[in-house]
Amino acid sequence: MTCTGAPLRIQLLGPIRAWRDGEEVALGSPKQRAVLSLLASRAGEVVSGESITSALWGSDTPQTAANGVHTYVARLRRALEPGRGSRVASTVLSSEPGGYCLRLDPADVDATLFVERHGHARRSREGGSAETTLRLYEDALALWRGEAYAGVPGPFAATEGVRLRDLRLTAVEEWASVMLAAGGYAEAVDTLSRAAVEEPLREKVRWLLMLALYHAGRQAHALAVYTETRQLLRSELGIEPGAELQDLHRRILAGQRELRLPGGSMSPGARQGIGAAVPVPAQLPAVARGFTGRGSELAQLESLLDDESAQRSPVIVVDGPAGVGKSALVLELAHRLAHRFPDGQLYVDLCGNGLRGRPLSASDALLHLLTSLGADSNRIPRDPAGRATLFRSLLYGKRMLLVLDDALSVDQLRPLIPRGASCVLATSRQRFAGLAARDGARTVTVRPLAVEEAAQLLTTLSGGRLVGRPDAARRFAALCGGLPLALRITAEGLLANPGVPLGTLVEQYTAESGRLDRLTVGDDALASVRDAFETSYQTLSPEAARMFRFLGLRKDGPITVSVAATLVDTDHVTARRLLDLLVAHHFLEEHGTRFRLHDLLGIYAAECAEREPMLSRRAALARLGETHPTAPHPSVPHATIPHPTGPHASAPHSDVVPGPGSPKDAGEAYAGVLRRAAVLRRAAFRQWEDPVRPTDLTAR
After folding, report:
1. Which pLDDT score, from 0 to 100, does residue 113 have?
2. pLDDT for 694 beyond 80
3. In what order do the strands lie in the sheet with 23-24?
4. Phi-psi region of 98 (alpha: psi -120 to 50; beta: other; left: phi over 0)
5. For the chain: N or C, fewer Cβ within 10 A?
6. DSSP β-ladder status, 93-96 and 589-591
7. Helix or strand or coil: residue 511?
8. What is the largest CA-CA distance in the chain?
9. What pLDDT does residue 313 have?
10. Residue 438, Cα to own-chain centre: how many angstroms?
11. pLDDT band, residue 630 (cuts 50/70/90)
12. What is the DSSP secondary structure assignment for residue 379, as one 8-state letter?
C-alpha cells in the first residue's frame, strides 16, 4: 500500500519514540506505545483489531480489550496530528475495513531500515570491498539506541525484541569477521567484548573474540575467554563447547600464528546444529490415498495460519475422536503449505495412542528433533530443559513446519513448541484447553465425514464395487458412522470379497453384535476400530471410564446430566464433570443439555458395560427406572442378564422392560423392575458372578 501523510519517523530500536516534522511526539502510556510499535512494524498494512489485542495481552485478553484499543488509537491520532479537526479523517492513522493502518513509509521506521541496510551489507560482503562492507554494517548498527521495543508490554513486543536482538548480534558477528580479515583486531575486540557480555552463551561471538584477542597479542586473555565459556555452557546448558571453540583453543595453546580457515575466511563456519552440511529436513509422511472432502476444515486451518502469521510461532492443534482422520487432514495441509517453509519440515509421531509403541516423552521427542537438525549427539544435553533450550536456539530465525502427530498430553507437547517464525501443527484425541489458554494455541475439532463425503471415499477406495451404486455406498457410510478409519477398513473388505453380493455384505455390517469385529484387518492393531477406541479408553481416569461403561447401558437413548448421575449413582456436579471429561476426550458429543454417543462408540460402550459386575448393571437400570420412569428403555441385551438364584431370589415375574411400541404398559413394566431392584439392594454384597480376574478392566 502506498503510504502518504505528514512526515513522521518512528524509533523501535530502543525506547519507542516518534518525531513529526522534527519535533518529538508525546506517545502516552506503555500500551499506547505498544499499539504504535505494532502498527509501525507493519507500516502501510492493515492490522486487525484482534491482532492488536493479541499483541498487547496474548491469551489473557480482558473483556474491555476492544474498547481499550479504540481509546489508544484515538489518543495516538491526537498525538500524531494535533491540528486535525474532530470531524476530519486521519491521514496518518486511518481506520480501514478490518482494522487500522499507519500510513507511513516503512523506511521511516528504524527497525525496517536496519533490516534493509543489513541486507545491503551482506550482499556487499560477497563481492564488495572490505571498506565499503564495513561502512554498510556500521550504518546499519548505528540505528540502534538500546534494546528493541524497550519498555513496551505484550507478547508481540517481547518476541520482536528478541528477533531483532538476534539479528543485531548476527550483524555484529558478520562485521567482526570482515574487520578481522582486514586486520582490525583492536576494534573487533572492543565490539565483541560488549556483545559477549550481552549474550554470554553465543559461541560464535566468543570464537571471534578469542581470535581477535589472540591476533592482538593477548593470548592469555583469549584462553581465559575459553575457560569462562566452558564454565558457562556447563552450568547453564550442561554441554561442552562446540568443536570450533575446542579446536581454536587447542591451536591457541599450541601457539599457531596462522589461524585462518581455508580460503582466508575468518568465520568459524555454520553454527553447530543447523549447518550448510545438514540437508534441509523434509520428513512429512505421504498423504493418505484417496483423501476426500474436508474442504471447510482445510480452509479454516489455512485461515488460522494466515491470521497467526504476524503473531509468530503459530500453534494449531487438530483434535477429534479416534479414527476420524486427524493425521490425514494435517498431513494434507502440511504438504499443501510446505512451500511456505523454506527451512524444512519436521515430523514426529508422539505415539500418544500407544498402538505404535509407548508414548514418546518430550525429552525423547526433542532428541529426535535435535538429531534431525544435525546437532552433534555428544553436545545434546541429557536433561529435558537443556534439550528444549537447544531446540529453540537451533530453530530461532528459521521458518520451519513442525508436525507433531498423536499427542497424549499438554506436558508432552509444550516443550516442543519453538519460538520465532516456525509453525506447529499437532493432532490429539483430546482437547488441550490449557494449551489454548496459556500458550495461545488454536484448536480445531474434526468431526466424522458427512454421508455424501463418506460415500465418495468408499467409492474411491473400493475398486469400482460401489460405482453406480450410490444407495449402497451411503448405507455403508452410515454404518461406519462417517469415521474414515472404519470407511477404509470397509473398503478393504469390499475388495477382499468380490464374490459376495453387496446386499449380503450390508446385512453383515448391519448387525451391531459383530460390526466392530468386521471393522478390523487381520492382526493389524492400526487397522482396528475397536483397538483404536480401546487405546483412547485406557487414557481415561477411573471415574470417567466407569461413567463411560454405564453410559453403554443406554447407548441409543438420550443422555442428560440427570440420567448419567442416576446410572453411576452420584450427584449432578460430579456427573457433569465426568461428562465434560468424556466430551474433552471425544467419547461424547454435546448437543445443548443432552449428550450423544457416536454410533460405533455406542457399540463399543455397550461392550465396555459388560466389564461391570452384573449386579452393578442391574442396580443402575433399576435406579434409572425409578427416577426416570418415562425414559426410553436402555438398549441392553436383556437375555444376557441371568435371574438371580438362591434364597434371596425374587418371585417369578416378567423380566423384560418393553421398548417403544410394546403393547404392555410402560409403567407396569417399570414396576416390575422396581420390585426386582428391592431384591437386588438386599443382595448388594452377594454377587453370583465369577471373581474379577487381575487383568480385568472392571477395576478401572
Report:
1. 94
2. no
3. 8-11, 17-20, 23-24
4. left
5. N
6. unpaired
7. coil
8. 107
9. 64
10. 12
11. low
12. G
CB 496 within 8 A of CB 505: no
Instruction: Specify the residue for cell string 511526539.
Output: 25
Nearest-CA neighbor of 219 among 268, 167, 257? 257
For cell 509407548, the residue is: 358
The amino acid present at 640, given as its one-letter code, is T
Measured CA angle at 366 (ends 232, 531), to 5 deg:
160
Question: Residue 310 pLDDT > 70, yes or no?
Answer: no
Tens of pLDDT along 593-628?
Answer: 899 998 899 899 999 999 988 988 899 888 888 777
Contact between residue 105 and residue 114 where contact means Cβ atoms under 8 Å apart: no
Tell me how far apart the alpha carbons of residues 117 and 174 are, in angstroms, rounded to a whole number: 13
Q: What is the pLDDT of residue 270?
A: 36
* Res 258: pLDDT: 56
In the chain, DSSP finds a helix count (H) and a strand count (E) of 28, 13
- Give the C-alpha distances (Å, rounded to integers) separating 280 from 140, 167, 365, 377, 475: 30, 22, 19, 18, 46
Segment 359-373 mean pLDDT: 89
User: Can you give the pLDDT at residue 238?
Assistant: 86
Q: Map 11-68 to HEC letters.
A: ECCCECEEEECCEECCCCCHHHHHHHHHHHHCCCCEECHHHHHHHHHCCCCCCCHHHH
The residue count for the chain:
700
Tell me whether residue 398 is exposed, middle or buried, using C-beta atoms within 10 angstroms of its C-beta: 0 to 12, 13 to 18, 19 or more.
Answer: middle
Grid cell listed for 106: 516503512
Whether residue 428 contacts residue 436, with contact meaning beta carbons closer than 8 Å, is answered with no
Q: What is the mean pLDDT of the chain?
A: 81
Question: Phi/psi of residue 615, each to 5°?
Answer: -65, -40
Dihedral of CA atoms 433, 436, 437, 439 in degrees, nearest 10, equals: 140
What is the amino acid identity at position 162?
Answer: V
CA neighbor of 438 nearest in space, from 461, 421, 420, 413: 413
Cα gap 326→312, rounded to integer Å: 24
Cell numbers linked to 74: 484515538
What is the Cα Rg of the chain in Å?
A: 33
If you average pLDDT over residues 581-603, what whole number do you get? Answer: 90
Average pLDDT over residues 354-360: 75
Q: Which residue has the higher pLDDT, 597 or 664?
A: 597
Q: Which strands form 345-349's sheet, in the order they lie side by side?
A: 345-349, 401-407, 423-428, 315-319, 442-445
Geometric angle at alpha carbon 542, from 536 and 544, rounded to 5°? 65
- What's the pLDDT at 665? 43
State the burial class of residue 115 (Cβ atoms within 10 Å of its Cβ: 0-12, 13-18, 19+). Answer: middle
d(CA 369, CA 551): 42
3-state helix, strand, coil in the chain (%, to 5): 55, 10, 40
Q: Quickly state the pLDDT bin for 120 (edges 50, 70, 90).
A: very high
Identify residue 522 by its one-letter amino acid code: G
**Distance of alpha carbon 693 from the chain centroid:** 40
What cell does 187 get? 576494534
Q: Where are the beta strands (DSSP E) in 324-451?
A: 345-349, 401-407, 423-428, 442-445
Model confidence pLDDT, tens digit, residues 401-447: 999 999 999 999 999 988 777 899 999 999 998 888 888 889 999 99
Q: Which helix (H) or strand (E) segment is 595 a member of? A: strand 594-596
pLDDT at site 691: 38
Sheet with 46-47: list strands edge to edge.
Answer: 46-47, 99-102, 93-96
Taking CB atoms within 8 Å and a gap of at least 24, the contacts of 578-585 are: 578/543, 578/544, 578/547, 579/547, 581/540, 581/541, 581/544, 581/547, 582/540, 582/544, 582/547, 582/548, 582/551, 584/430, 584/431, 584/433, 585/429, 585/430, 585/431, 585/536, 585/539, 585/540, 585/544
Q: Are 102 and 44 in contact (CB under 8 A)?
A: yes
